[in-house]
Amino acid sequence: MAEAGWYPDEQDAALLRWWDGQQWTGHVRDARPDPPPQDAAAAAPGRRAGGKVSTVVAVLLVALIWPGFPLVMLGGGLYILNVQRSGTPAEATVTECHRVTRRSTVCNGTWTVGDLAAGGTVVQGTIEGANRDDVGETLDVRVSGDRAYTRSLRLPVVLIGFAAVLLALPLFSRGKPWIQIVRRQPAGTGPERPG
Q1: Are 29 and 187 in contact (CB under 8 A)?
Q2: What's this model's pTM, rounded to 2 decimal places?
Q3: pLDDT tens, residue by residue, 181-191
Q4: If we measure between CA atoms, which residue out of 91, 79, 96, 94 comes closest to residue 155?
């Protein structure tokens, strides 16, 4: 009897079938020979050298982009807190609110910057922290540019909270890799294991 190994499939010449030493199994693979191993340094530009190039690119992208999202959220939350404390005090009247998503509403209104009699101006813009219940109401706000900010801490706390969670995730990974690389067994290195 023949030794266990890959042999041409009698029903399909493009395949090899595994003989386990006693009988034919259901395991098949491509009959074309595997290309010779290629040195990573000799690989053509842009080609994958054993998957290492794509892994390095993925890791670099994650390393460069990952901190960006929570840092932007953290910066936004701190900016709003700063404007709420140091912006120009004003009174804003909420004129309308529009639902953007199920939980998010954007409110617009008007406020006066400076004394109108002394050359102040009326500004129309977005009022951060206002909601539908505030339409027609006059709120104490702090102004920066074309935005007015109420004293509500909801948005800055949410932004800073999400940023803290995202920045802390690597601390809780306990050294486990975030990206796991699964390498397939090259054809011809042995039979596939039954499922």
Answers
A1: yes
A2: 0.49
A3: 444 445 555 45
A4: 79
